Amino acid sequence: MTLSSPLAAAREYLAAGLAPIPLPYGAKAPAPGFSWRHWQDCPPGEAELALLFTADQQNVAIVCGRASGNLLVLDADDAPTAHQIGTRLEAAGIATWMVRRPPNGTAHDGGGQYWLRTPRPARSGCLAMLAGQAVALDLKGQGSYVVAPPSRHPGGSCYAFASRPSAIFTLPSLDALDWLPLEPARPTAALPRPRISRRAWRLLQGDPATVGQYPSRSEAEAALCAALANAGCTFADTLRLLRVHPGPGKFAARHASDPREALRYLYRTWCHAQEWAATHEAPARRQAQRL
Question: What is the model's pTM?
């Protein structure tokens, strides 16, 4: 794997059909205010990667499940479990990506991750027993992520691939391995996405009367981003819409002079608007819920 920068590693993961997200350097948890779940159904786009991975030192995590082509990671928490899983996979003729967790002088030393793909998203869970034997195994499927190379472990040293064939092995079915109890995840991606409001559509079209109701074009675009977030749109959706439609005009003006700065501006606006949308409920929605 290319280790020149976190962004280079993220781009390589994206090219492999995986969904990379950033974590603080040396950490397993996201930075405060960072909502990684926006990418649990679809990976970030190339433009988003350039906005997410901006530091020389960042950890890289991979979103499991649907966003990464139905990725399932068998995360063994200790050496005996890692050995047992590796032996069982080898007996089944499976050679797949395997990540070693760096040693830190604890019972977790010798653990590791086995990356598989499944024909449909698998549910996340934990196992303490497997085929009558005690294990410490996490099933990282839909709704989970794993810390990936070249990230630094909180205890020091870095994650690394112990083996990395040309492709991640895909199981033919969820019950292909009779010793591994896998269950399908909820089909959340099939839920319909709400349409945006008429006001949001007018803002997207750059309607002067609607834009003029806000103190500035920046606030009008923030309102548009909040409406799109409420409708279930991702940042990639918002970016595509504002590249096709004029919008309130602030992003378009910045993009004409400095496209990279325009992306940063829009991403900041979208993140703030999304946080606002998550903590503020429209009066009409409150009334509908009361009814």
Answer: 0.71
